[in-house]
Amino acid sequence: MPTNVIMPALEMAQETGKILRWLKADGASVTKGEPIMEIETDKVTVEIESPASGILSNITAREGDVIPVGQTIAWVLGIGESVPNVAPAVQSGRTIPKAIEISASPVAKRIAEEHEIDLAQVKPSGGRIEKADVQSYIEKTKDLIGLQNLSGLTPASPKARRLASERGVDISALRGSGPDGAVIAADISVALPTIPSPISTIWRVMAERMTTSWTTVPHFFLVRDVDASRLIAWRTSAQKHATAKITFTDLLVKLIAHTLRDHPQVNASWCADTIQLHDAINLGIATALDTGLIVPVIHAAETLGIAEIATQRADLVARAQTGKLRPADITGGTFTLSNLGMYGVDAFNAIINSPQAAILAVGRIADRVIAFNGQPAVRSMVTLTLSCDHRAVDGARGAKFLNDLANLIEEPLGLLT
């Protein structure tokens, strides 16, 4: 029987996916499990396999289209089969409705868009909505759409006011080209032709999640200066016995994972008014891309040696930079490390990667004059800043974790392998 190809849900809370490219053309023969398209979600780019063997038919989504999760975008047909006439696709109990087409002239659509008018609310005088119908609607609803001059305000459409506010344009200084001289969106564009650069999906998601974390999670910060002399020596020694490049981040992942075993409440999450302790220690590494910030995860980091951590870290970063991360690579994190030392940053406060309970921010290793054995001395120092969710970690627990980690950095003991 015919098998439908839908936009899959690869992540929690995913609502849409973007078609990057079709790997098979309409009418091509496909085998079950064979990649047929490449899609992009908020976090990853991934190949989607054919759900059945047959002929790929009736592709309805083009490359670049953003499709709701669960919507049918193609069919795989067997010999003699045809595309069935079925209701909209349903996934996880959610019906994906078909878009409602509204018949309107191009001029009517442009005017409606400029004034942010829903054409479904405009009653056509004939077979389709025309310019006069939209203008009549505007005239009847001036009080609602903000075009009339109230309390001395310059008449302007809501969209124009929003654009003016975003771009710093004095709307009262503009001569409007809309009905009754109202300022419309096009007038703002003329006044300030420079349009902000579009942001990537990854950047938008990062902005939304960081805003949510910062505004809903009660952060507090603990700061500790640590002597990194032994860490430097450890890296030099470890590099002699490894083929992969060993970085300070790799060593810190090992030390953090080891310390978290004795501090399970730091390796936790605040969920539904309870503290959820995690059995595994999955270390996320904040990674900066041109398109935004992403956090690939090294799973079960407490079980890995330095060489294994370095190899996995290098692979994750390389695939993050080429957009080839899999969903499993960015899920399941229980603690995050953000290291900006390579950028010359001395110290910083990181925003928690919610719902995790904590994140460690690491600055650069630099020579500083400190008191050492009662005398001034130059030592290689690094500043650690632990950000904690106060709902899951109190000050004492956070301080004990940071103290044990600092001591381990200064004296790695038996972890030098």
Question: How many β-strand runs?
Answer: 21
Poorly predicted residue ranges: 87-100, 143-151
The mean pLDDT is 85
Could you say which overall geometry the principal axes of the C-alpha atoms support?
globular
Strand content: 15-25%
SSE blueprint:
Blueprint: E1 3-6, E2 16-22, E3 29-30, E4 35-40, E5 45-49, E6 54-57, E7 66-68, E8 72-77, E9 90-91, E10 94-95, H1 106-114, H2 131-140, H3 142-145, H4 158-167, H5 185-191, H6 201-216, E11 219-227, H7 229-240, H8 248-260, E12 268-271, E13 274-277, E14 283-285, E15 287-289, E16 292-294, E17 297-298, H9 306-321, E18 335-339, E19 358-362, E20 366-372, E21 375-389, H10 395-410
Parallel strand pairs: 14-18, 18-19
Antiparallel strand pairs: 1-8, 2-4, 2-7, 3-6, 4-5, 6-8, 9-10, 11-21, 12-13, 14-17, 15-16, 19-21, 20-21
Helix pairs in contact: 1-2, 4-5, 8-9, 8-10
Brief overview:
The protein is an alpha+beta fold and 417 residues long. It contains ten helices and 21 strands. The strands form six sheets. Strands 11, 14, 17, 18, 19, 20 and 21 form a seven-stranded mixed β-sheet that branches. Strands 1-8-6-3 form a four-stranded antiparallel β-sheet, with no helix packed on it. It has a four-stranded antiparallel β-sheet with strand order 5-4-2-7, with no helix packed on it.
Please characterize this protein's 3D structure:
A hairpin with a 4-residue loop joins strand 4 and strand 5 (45-49). Strands 11, 14, 17, 18, 19, 20 and 21 form a seven-stranded mixed β-sheet that branches. Mean pLDDT is 85; it is low at 87-100 and 143-151. The longest helix is centred in the middle third of the chain and has 16 residues, at 201-216. The chain has 417 residues and is an alpha+beta fold. Helix 1 (106-114) packs parallel to helix 2. The protein contains ten helices and 21 strands. The chain starts with a strand and ends in a 7-residue tail after the last helix.
